[in-house]
């Protein structure tokens, strides 16, 4: 666990570029992100690509489900005139590899993409540059595949997970939304031997409040603001 608070860019820098694209990831790294959080889905032919939604509609004006589109077909899905497209996980890992000290945080909502995702990470020799966050079922799948992987368990309850789950999963961080974070929760998480990560913090006053509470990792859509706030915080 890092001694300073980790600044995590949510889907890259979506204020400057379309989320989960190479441009968004590169912009976040240039703004000083310690890690870039991305979402991974599988194409019809099982290739991990960066996309949050199950369909292409919201970002790419295409109503098809990503699970019904092959990688070759996905090459045709782009933003005309903007030079944007949906990258593969392998392409994004190359960007991370070229940036000293950068980390990629892969967010998985379910266990479906876990095996293919870990295979890409492992085949590229990037296990030490990647962390995972997500649901219980997804993180259990990752832990089985990768006993040494860094895991942040996304959690939406005030109570800590049962000890049996903590023993099985061995998460490095508990990852609740910032609205649940208070002094008691931070203390309980630290007493349990985990770091406290939280999301998605976009206002300066909320960032400063989280820092005052002693959180260890902050995820934001406004990575440049988050970086400045962390650096300027007197604690």
Automatic annotation (TrEMBL):
UniProt-recorded name of the protein: Glycerophosphoryl diester phosphodiesterase
Gene3D superfamilies: Phosphatidylinositol (PI) phosphodiesterase
PANTHER family named among the record's database cross-references: GLYCEROPHOSPHODIESTER PHOSPHODIESTERASE, CYTOPLASMIC, GLYCEROPHOSPHORYL DIESTER PHOSPHODIESTERASE
MF terms in GO: phosphoric diester hydrolase activity
Alphabetical list of InterPro entries matching this protein: GP_PDE_dom, PLC-like_Pdiesterase_TIM-brl
Pfam families: GDPD (PF03009)
Ranges where the GP-PDE domain occurs: 5-230
Superkingdom field: Bacteria
Single GO biological process annotation from the record: lipid metabolic process
Organism of derivation: Kitasatospora cineracea
């Amino acid at each position: 666990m890092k001694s300073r608070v980790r600044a995590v860019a949510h889907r890259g820098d979506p204020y400057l570029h379309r989320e989960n694209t190479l441009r968004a990831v590169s912009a976040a790294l240039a703004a000083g992100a310690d890690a870039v959080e991305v979402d991974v889905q599988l194409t019809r032919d099982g290739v991990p690509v960066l996309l949050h939604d199950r369909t292409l509609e919201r970002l790419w004006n295409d109503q098809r489900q990503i699970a019904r589109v092959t990688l070759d077909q996905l090459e045709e899905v782009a933003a005309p005139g903007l030079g944007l497209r949906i990258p593969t996980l392998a392409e994004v890992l190359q960007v991370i590899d070229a940036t000293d000290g950068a980390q990629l945080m892969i967010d998985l909502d379910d266990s479906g993409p876990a095996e293919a995702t870990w295979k890409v990470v492992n085949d590229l020799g990037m296990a030490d540059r990647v962390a995972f966050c997500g649901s219980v079922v997804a993180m259990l799948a990752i832990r089985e595949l990768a006993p040494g992987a860094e895991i942040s368990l996304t959690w939406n309850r005030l109570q800590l997970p049962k000890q049996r789950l903590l023993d099985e999963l061995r998460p490095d961080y508990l990852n609740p939304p910032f609205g649940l974070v208070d002094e008691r929760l931070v203390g309980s998480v630290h007493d349990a031997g985990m770091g406290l990560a939280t999301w998605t913090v976009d206002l300066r006053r909320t960032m400063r409040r989280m820092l005052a509470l002693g959180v260890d990792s902050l995820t934001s859509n406004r990575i440049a603001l988050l970086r400045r706030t962390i650096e300027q915080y007197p604690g």
